[in-house]
Inverse folding.
């Protein structure tokens, strides 16, 4: 069994990006600038956005964090998005999800200028991704592809089972794994809450990508020998013995499933850090595309 070490690979990628930023600085060019909007005070979301901003500093990007109260109206948020769309200094920005109930997420995502949509959530970018056109690939799926590529995990002709059909992970992942090329050329099954006899499907899988948010959901008896496991789950499970009061837990019963797996991502230290690295990569791409124009 080999660990797909997202922590290490993400550090490699950040070093590569930092070197490119240094080159930009040496030439006197503007460095990439990422902005993030967060609405409300959800602890996990604040932590994720904080990590994204910290990662910007680490590679030499500029960053701006915009915190808006949980009572923010959709109109107020759309106004802020318009400002960022029109601000030449900002190369890319994200609106951290989920948003409070009074705000229509799809309206918000459609308001983002597709050329600054480094999350790749705008329908134009999502459509381009589905059509194999060059675009921003959502950071978590992009990170998973990068891990599979850097560890040379064979995907061609394999049966990939994706668990969960979220717009952020499951849906794009199911499209990307079936595309031509590497990683890709898989036969893909997308499973979700209405899937019957899921164990019958997962035991047929060569690769399982789980993005469910149910701690320890995937058990050893649900997988076959030599399976490749990508665990996207990051649930905070209360734990008094931990100084933070919780532990981050994946969707996979790691202790038992890892004994059968050929490759497996740990939680934490697997997909999570890759997501942040690929957001930086998309921001670098956004900057480069602006420079070419
Ligand atoms: N919430 C959970 N994952 C993500 C992500 O990749 N981007 C944004 N904007 N919000 C998220």
């Amino acid at each position: 069994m080999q660990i797909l070490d997202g922590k290490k690979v993400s550090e490699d990628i950040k070093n590569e990006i930092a070197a490119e930023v240094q080159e930009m600085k040496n030439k006197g060019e503007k460095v990439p600038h990422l902005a993030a909007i967060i609405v409300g005070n959800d602890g996990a979301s604040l932590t994720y956005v904080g990590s994204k901003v910290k990662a910007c500093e680490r590679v030499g990007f500029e960053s701006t964090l915009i915190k808006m109260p949980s009572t923010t109206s959709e109109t107020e948020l759309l106004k802020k998005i318009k400002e960022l769309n029109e601000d030449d200094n900002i190369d890319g920005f994200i609106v951290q999800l989920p948003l409070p109930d009074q705000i229509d997420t799809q309206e918000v995502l459609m308001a983002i200028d597709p050329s600054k949509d480094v999350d790749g959530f705008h329908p134009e970018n999502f459509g381009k991704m589905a059509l194999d056109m060059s675009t921003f690939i959502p950071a978590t799926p992009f990170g998973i592809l990068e891990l599979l590529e850097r560890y040379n995990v064979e995907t061609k002709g394999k049966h990939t089972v994706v668990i969960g059909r979220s717009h952020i992970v499951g849906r794009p992942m199911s499209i990307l794994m079936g595309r031509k090329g590497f990683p890709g050329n898989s036969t893909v099954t997308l499973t979700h809450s209405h899937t019957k006899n899921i164990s019958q499907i997962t035991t047929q899988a060569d690769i399982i990508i789980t993005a469910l948010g149910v701690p320890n959901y995937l058990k050893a008896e649900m997988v076959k020998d030599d399976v490749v496991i990508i665990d996207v789950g990051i649930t905070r499970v209360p734990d008094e013995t931990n100084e933070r009061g919780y532990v981050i837990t994946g969707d996979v019963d790691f202790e038992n499933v890892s004994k059968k797996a050929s490759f497996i991502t740990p939680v934490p230290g697997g997909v999570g850090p890759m997501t942040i690295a690929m957001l930086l990569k998309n921001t670098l791409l956004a900057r480069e595309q602006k420079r070419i124009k």
